[in-house]
Amino acid sequence: MQRSTNPNPCLIAILLIVRSSSGVNFVFHYPPKPRSTPTHAPARRHSQYAAYTISGTSSPSSPSTSGSSDDDADDRQSRTTARGRTATERSDSGSKTRSRRRQHVKDEDEGDGKARDEKGEAVRVLGFKEEFLAGLLAPKERMCKTKFELSIDDMVFLGYPLHVRPDGTWRKQKKKRGRERNGSGGYDGDMDMEGNPDAGNTAMGNGGHEDDADDEDDDEDGESSQGGNFGNMTMFHVVFVLNPPELEYHSRTQEMFDYVVKRFARALKYEQAKDGYVWREAEKIVRLKDKANHEGISFADLWKDILDQSSLAYAISRIYIDISQSKIAHVFLNNNLGLSLQMPILTEISVMPSITEPQVPGLPLTTANSFGDDDSEGDNLLAKHFTLLFLEDVDGILKDIEAEATDSSASLARFVEACKPTMSYVSILVSKSRFLQISNSCGIPLHEIQVMARHLVHWRKARAIPPIHQRDTYIVSPNADLKKLHTLIPIYRTLFPTLQPLPKLLTLLSGKPKPFSAFIPSRAHRPAYLEILAFLIRHGLATQLRNFAWLRVTRQIKRAVAAEERRAKKANADPPLNSQPQEKEREREREKELTKMTSSISSLLSHNNDSDSEGEYEDSIILEPHQASSIESSWLEMMTRDQPPDIKALFDRIIKYLNGQHAIEKVAVREGIARKDVRRVLGAFDGFVIYARHW
């Protein structure tokens, strides 16, 4: 699925609906007073991207201090009481739905998104009565365990309702599936986190229950079951309410369903099957609401109590807050299951957005994207030569891995340790080793190395980049977010107190492009300046300027080839009927003439005695030199005629990259030749190569 440049989850609210023997109950919703437009609308797209690029993830805060400041302020002003509601199921026929929609929408309070009755009680959510929403969002059993999608005006109610099994349990006992692991603690495929919606969703070793929670293969005829029906709940439904742009409706809703809605529902089903977690939390929330109703507790205090006392309510609030801001939501369910959820985002772009497209300053800008999201993307030959640019402190990443021990944690920790830079100058920097080198040194298969690297990239712990080299050219990124310089300068000054100030270095990089080594004062400063370069790339301030090349055929080459063809035709013409000695003499003369003509390409290029006019031949470019036509092959042969054999051999190997589609910097890696040999070959054909520089 193609990801949008603009991060916009479009999340309005999250609702919790349960059905028990007493009927359907609208249990909980967050935020307390949802609006019909997202609270965290991306009005300032550049600052929003900076939030999840620099900080990476959000950490759970205290329930008493978490949440939207606007919502909290509104809650303090609201001194109404709340009451839990119970309703019987309603028919979901189209005509009745439309009539109810018209009845309730016209009563919507546009001021705060929550209408009130005469007693001042908060009984409406998004302009609808709680009883109405409860009945509408509680589908029949046959509609459970599948995607639930309901559109009302501009809002989409998206969920994955789950129903108890016919035998009264929530999941069947699965047979244990053997997994092959190598003796060295090889990386487990269950930890594949390249963005596949069906893969596990644990971050940095979190959880480990997703495989159990994933019950797509459950059927109604399972012989053995586990997880009794704790309580009398028969169905629960966590509903995500979205307000997606009309042109992005399908992509936004599908991403939210695949990466957040379905995964969260499965995790809750796992905990419900284990010890009735969802029903227990739902009862707790209903009791708190009943208590508030009888004791006159204010609406704001009630919601604070719910978030303080219910781990499920708090998890829902964290998911709403973090997903709304395009962050990673880390929640802990039932004091047991650690769960991490996120909406996938673009980590880099290769083309600047047009003036009509959403602008995202600070997003890394590069065409060096050979390391794809999975094995089917990118250039596998080049991907093994990539390395990691850590976006968080390496020691902190290792602590996260150790805190959540899983079968694959050992391999992941070894990989991160191997990537960990040996320099102590700064703790957030780029690995000095390529994936292939790490694989050889650690004994971990290269494929597993790449899977673990994609895991770290997916969870925004690192970026995969080509190795940083002082001979490469770097410039200030055209997409750099210079508005955040005032926050980066103090950080830079702390990390590099004795080196050039950040504004001065950016000024130097903004000048005429030159290799980064030109900015390094001495060999002793090289490690520190490479760390500075990693800092600039990490914050989207710098990008590599790469060279792309085409082969140019000059008019002199074309005239020389044409002259040679004419001479060859003349030489091959039928000889007159003369004696044999005269014929041999003329043939010797022709051979001398041809030898003289081909002795030096320079003499051919300077030949001006033919009858061709100057305008007959113009310089041109061979678009695909490795698929040259017959005449283009003649031109190429003329270019290489006077070159030494070793240059010719190297030229034949790299000629396929001289079509403007491949960066010259990757030729050495792909062909396994030294960078200096590539430079030597290109230097030998300097008059026939046209260069263009691009990120």
Characterise this structure.
The protein contains 24 helices and 20 strands. With 695 residues, it is α+β, with helices and mostly antiparallel strands. The strands form 6 sheets. Strands 1, 2, 3, 6, 7, 8 and 11 form a 7-stranded antiparallel sheet that branches. Strands 16, 17, 18, 19 and 20 form a 5-stranded antiparallel sheet that branches. The two termini are 25 Å apart. Residues 629-689 form the GATOR1 complex protein NPRL3 C-terminal HTH domain. It is a peripheral membrane protein. Residues 211-223 have a biased composition (Acidic residues).
**For the residues shown, what is the average pLDDT?**
75
- The number of helical runs is 24
Structural class: alpha+beta
* Alpha-carbon distance between the two ends: 25 Å
Q: What Rg do the Cα atoms give?
A: 34 Å
What's the β-strand tally?
A: 20
Family: Belongs to the NPR3 family.
Protein name: Nitrogen permease regulator 3
Keywords: Meiosis, Signal
GO biological process, one term: negative regulation of TORC1 signaling
